[in-house]
Amino acid sequence: MKDHSAFLDTNILLYLLSEDETKSVQAESTVAAGGVISVQVLNEFASVARRKLDLSFDEIREFLSHICMVCPVIPVTVTVHDQGLRIAENYGLSIYDALIVAAALSAGCTTLYSEDMQDGQMIDAQLLIRNPFA
After folding, report:
1. What CATH number does residue 29 fall under?
2. How many CB atoms sit inside 10 A of residue 122's CB?
3. Which domain holds residue 125?
4. What is the bridge-based pairing of β-strands 73-74 and 127-130?
5. What mean pLDDT do residues 101-113 have?
6. How do residues 109-132 score in pLDDT, each as one tens digit?
7. Per residue in 54-65, pLDDT tens?
8. Beta strand extents in the chain (DSSP E only)
9. Phi/psi at 5 (5° precision)
10. Does a structural domain hold residue 1?
11. How many domains, the chain?
12. Residue 1 has pLDDT above 60, yes or no
């Protein structure tokens, strides 16, 4: 059974396509264990994949369709937005990182896998940020 107590930040999905074999293998292992993502993660992935990786829209759609089969996707609601603003203010995170955190909390996750945030930071005594590449 897949682990749905973990939330995956966009960079984990991007590393699945990395030429860095170490990070690619670790990202694959992290995703294979299971995790939740949000619509924001889908959007951020599509933006970076198009702009930096030069993937076609068909390639992006195909990749994300596979991800959506493996990872439950939660919406970014007004409640998540409001919580994200509070988290950004209280923890000094960027709005976009705070929205990822808020989505993870909304999904009831206890671990957020991200390379971009502070490894070991605890948010609201519920969510532990872990860098799977550290």
Report:
1. 3.40.50.1010
2. 11
3. 6-130
4. unpaired
5. 98
6. 999 999 999 999 999 999 999 999
7. 999 999 999 999
8. 6-8, 37-38, 73-74, 111-113, 122-123, 127-130
9. -95, 0
10. no
11. 1
12. no
